[in-house]
Structures are given as structure tokens and as C-alpha cells.
Amino acid sequence: MTLLLSFTGKSQPVNDACNSATPLCPNVISNGTNYAATATVCPDCEDDFTFCFSGVNSVWYRFTTNNNGGDVTVDVTNLVFNPQANRGNQLQAVIVNALVPCDAATFTTVSNCESAGSANFQLLAPALLPNTDYYIVINGAKNGAAVLPAEATFDIQASGPGIDRLPVGISIGGNNVICPSNPVAYSVYVDNCTDTSLFQWSLNGVLVSQSATPYFLSSSIQDGDVLSVSCTCFDVCPETVNYVFGPISVDNLVVDAGPDQTINSGTTVVLNATSNGSIYSWTPAILVSSDSTATTYSTPNSTTTYFVTASNNFCSVSDEVTVFVTDHIVVPGSFSPNGDGTNDRWLIEGIEFYPNTQVSIYDRWGQLITDITGYSILKSWDGTNNGKPVTDGVYFYSIDFNDAKREILKGSVSVIR
């Protein structure tokens, strides 16, 4: 009586229907039962078949062959039957191929048909197609004088060359010696791995990227870093694989374009790069005396940034230097031509960049005091008119640079002795 009670109260199995068939992992034993299983028999229904048996209280399993296909063996072992009176004590089973999933009208048997499995039995399916889903139906028999179909617990395992997983291969493609500061790309390659999950990329064991695509791009890899990638293969019975790449070496190529400089317009500047590379390239090439040497010369008319690239036949790195050009004009508002050697002349800062400048000085009545062409330090106004000192006071000037880029400047200057 105790034994009978232990078999009661079973719930309907989750794989009672073909469309909820339990997937079998290669070479893994699964526990099964057809307790409280039912049958759905109607045109094109899953249990509407007659092989060496008809569907009564069937449960369903499925497996997928590998890329090669081949023989598959399904072992059903450790059968323990419900001893309830009037119940059968044999299982029935077969492996089928379904052109339309779970449509009995499209089923064809691909294995021997077991009709009286009272102890361990085996289903043999030879030469199965690659990458194909197959179904296993297990059914309780009404053998002998039984009026109720057999119910049992059992173990089930699928194995053989047609289902065995081929060795999963994973590797990373890319350079293990890279150039400094340059973006570098790596790719992951997987073989015999279906239903791939996201690729997880790590640097030195720290996750840095997850991607559905098999590519990794970085500009932050340092010398000695170790790159690794992992992913999961197979939706059913997943398998995690990983690959470690490195340590990665960063080439020691460096280049320094030199410090920024400030010059006056029209001045020639020396640009001097230093590098452990052997090949140089300056840009803008048109502005330098030589674009392929470490040291070159330029005479910029305006503030310019120069770029130098150094190479060593494997890597190229670049640096920049800016030459700031000052050509501003500063017109003093006063000077003191008293002969003490300080501020005795009206010196206009920056005038030397405009050698054709004409400066005219007027008194407060508009009379021309002096007119100087090619104004410079040597030809600057000394506060005289025809060699005689002018009186203290305010005088007015007009500065014509004779340059289309600059307007005529007008203003006043005070003579203070």
C-alpha cells in the first residue's frame, strides 16, 4: 500500500506535448517520466500516429544533430513502473523526423521502434542529417490484460557521432605588437559554436566591452595588457568558451615636435623634432624648407600649427607645434624728446613689419609738421619740425601702412618735455 501511494499525486509532465519537448544535451543523462501524461489525437495532431504503437500517454524529447550528422543512440534506462492494478508495465518509443514540427502527418521514423520496453532499451538512428531537429516519443503500453497505460520514471540519454558536439574553437585575430596611441582592432573567431551569445571583452581581467559583433576596437591598450574574450555557445545546454591573447606589446616609437614658439611676422623659425624613428614628414609641407628632415625652417606670416610624423617602418606617430606670429601695432600716446636718452623718439611697436609705412604729423591747426616714408626706429619722429623742436602739446598723426590688409590709423600724440 505504501508503494502505491508513492506513485499517486503526480502532476502532468512539462513535455506532455510535442511543442514543449524536452531538449536533450549530448551525453547527458536526464530524468524522465510519463506519469499523468495525455495524448492529443486528431488530424495532424502530434499523437495521431501508428508506428509499432499508437499514442496514449506520450511524452516528448528532442535533439539536434551536429554539423556532420551521423548515427545517434538513445538509451532509456532505470525504468520504474507504477504497479497500480490494471496498468501496463512496458514503455514504447521511437525517434521521428518531422517535416513540419509536431505535425504527425509529416512524421517519418528514423530508428527502431520499441513496443515492449519492460527493462533498459535502446533506440538506434543511423546516418541522421546534419543540423536537424529530431523528436523522441515515449509512450505507456496497455500490455497483457491492462486497461490503463503504463506509467514509469526513467533515465534518458542521447549519444553518438551524429549528436556529439564537435570541439568548439575560439581565437582572437590581431597584432600582438601595436603602435602607440593608434586605434587597434581585434576579431574573435569561433568554430562549431551556434547560437552565440554576446562577446565579452576584458583587459587584464576587467570587462571593458560587450558586443553582438565579433569585433573589438580600442585606443587605450597599454604595453603588457592582456586581452581576453568569452562567449556562450548553444541555446540548449550552453557551453562557455574563452580565449586569452597577450600580453600585448606597444612599440616604443615617440616623437616630439618641440615647444610652441612666438615670433614676429616675417621672422624665420627653426622647427626641430626629436624621435627614435628614422623617417620624418612635416605638414603643411609647402610652408617648410624640407618636409622630410628632423630639422626644418619656416617663415610664417600668421599663426600656424605644424605637424610632424615620425615612422620606423612599423609604426607612425605624430606631434604638433604651434608658431604664434605677432604683428600688432602699438602706437604710443606720448613721448618726451628732452635729450635724456629715455623715450626721446616716437617709436611705433610692430612698424618694422610694414617697411612701406608713411607717417604724417600735423599740428592742431592742421599744418603738416613732418612726413616720414619708410617709418622705422632710425627714421622715427624726434619731436622736431625742420630740425627745430616743436612746442609741448598735442599733435595729430596719420599712419598709412600701404598694405591692403591694414587700414590707415589716425590719432593724437602728446609731446612732453
Plain-language structure description:
With 417 residues, this protein is mostly beta strands. It folds into four domains: 2-159, Jelly Rolls (Sandwich), CATH 2.60.120.380; 169-250, Sandwich (Immunoglobulin-like), CATH 2.60.40.10; 255-326, Sandwich (Immunoglobulin-like); 334-415, Immunoglobulin-like. 1% of the residues lie in helices and 43% in strands. The protein has one helix at 2-5, and strands at 22-23, 30-33, 59-64, 70-81, 91-98, 107-109, 114-117, 121-128, 133-140, 152-159, 169-173, 177-178, 184-191, 199-203, 206-211, 215-218, 227-233, 239-245, 249-250, 255-256, 261-264, 269-272, 274-275, 279-283, 295-298, 304-311, 316-326, 334-335, 358-362, 368-373, 384-385, 388-389, 393-400, 409-415. The strands form ten sheets. Strands 1, 3, 5, 6, 7 and 9 form a six-stranded mixed sheet that branches. The protein has a five-stranded mixed sheet with strand order 28-34-33-29-30, with no helix packed on it. The protein starts with a helix and ends with a strand.
Which helices and strands, and how do they pair?
Blueprint: H1 2-5, E1 22-23, E2 30-33, E3 59-64, E4 70-81, E5 91-98, E6 107-109, E7 114-117, E8 121-128, E9 133-140, E10 152-159, E11 169-173, E12 177-178, E13 184-191, E14 199-203, E15 206-211, E16 215-218, E17 227-233, E18 239-245, E19 249-250, E20 255-256, E21 261-264, E22 269-272, E23 274-275, E24 279-283, E25 295-298, E26 304-311, E27 316-326, E28 334-335, E29 358-362, E30 368-373, E31 384-385, E32 388-389, E33 393-400, E34 409-415
Parallel strand pairs: 1-3, 12-19, 21-27, 28-34
Antiparallel strand pairs: 2-10, 3-9, 4-8, 4-10, 5-6, 5-7, 5-9, 11-13, 13-16, 14-15, 14-17, 17-18, 20-23, 22-25, 24-26, 26-27, 29-30, 29-33, 31-32, 33-34
